[in-house]
Design a protein that fits this description.
Length: 249
């Protein structure tokens, strides 16, 4: 077994809000290639795109990347990266896995290092950033992480919600959708059925918390643009074309 992590990027064309978004042009490149480049720039380990369609595989390999085809009917990105992992690393050489969402083209590469640092001995880890824009506090599209911070920049997740929480004075934290897993924890996670709170909040990570998994958290200063709409796509284009800076940078 190797101590080197592997970064897996799930991607599929059948997005409901922005169809075929992995192939959308951002600053002259398909979005999935931009995301692959951010992962490569982190220099944290092997990077593989877990694709649902041949078109995505072809685009990534044409750019010099590595991609593997997975079952298009898999229910989630977590299932997709696990199937890809079993295909490309059946002997378990990689024991730390990063799930980097395929719609984060502006992600600062250093955040991949931070999520791996937060993994430590935890089963999973993820990232949060303090909410500084008032409109995000009550926006259900901004997922909030309720965290117990042991230091100003690290701790563990207690819950995730679309509601404005916790109540009272103090900061709220914006969850950033990048995860690291111990390999055994990822296998356990994808074997679990969807949980009650996961289905209620529409947040997959609650399945892990309901199953008693410990999720480490690192608090960072930058929030990447998640591309879900045409407006998000326009913003990512401006950022990667050098016309504006990502939040927190």
């Amino acid at each position: 077994m190797s101590d080197e992590p592997i970064i897996l990027i799930p991607a599929r064309l059948a997005s409901t809000r922005l169809p075929r978004k992995p192939l959308a042009d951002i600053a002259g490149l398909p979005m999935i290639v931009q995301v692959w480049q951010r992962a490569m720039e982190s220099a944290c380990g092997r990077v593989v795109v877990a694709a649902a369609e041949d078109e995505i595989v072809e685009v990534v390999t044409s750019a010099g990347g590595e991609a593997v085809l997975t079952d298009p009917d898999l229910p989630s990105g977590s299932d997709r990266i696990y199937q890809a992992l079993e295909q490309i690393d059946p002997k378990g050489a990689h024991q730390r896995i990063v799930n980097m969402q395929g719609d984060l083209p502006t992600l600062e590469p250093g955040l991949i290092t931070r999520v791996l640092e937060a993994l430590g001995d935890n089963e999973m880890s993820t990232l949060v950033a303090e909410i500084t824009e008032a409109g995000e506090r009550d926006d259900p599209n901004v997922v909030k992480a309720i965290v117990s911070l042991h230091t100003p920049s690290s701790g563990r997740a207690l819950y995730f919600t679309r509601a404005t929480a916790p109540s009272g004075d103090g900061p709220l934290y914006h969850h950033i959708g990048i995860y690291a897993y111990q390999r055994a924890a990822l296998a356990n996670f994808v074997a679990l059925p969807p949980s009650v709170l996961e289905q209620r909040e529409r947040l997959e990570q609650l399945r892990a918390l309901e199953a008693g998994m410990r999720i480490g958290v690192a608090c960072v200063d930058t929030v990447p643009v998640g591309v879900d709409t045409a407006q998000d796509l326009e913003l990512a284009n401006r950022i990667l074309s050098g016309h504006t800076a990502p939040k927190g940078v």
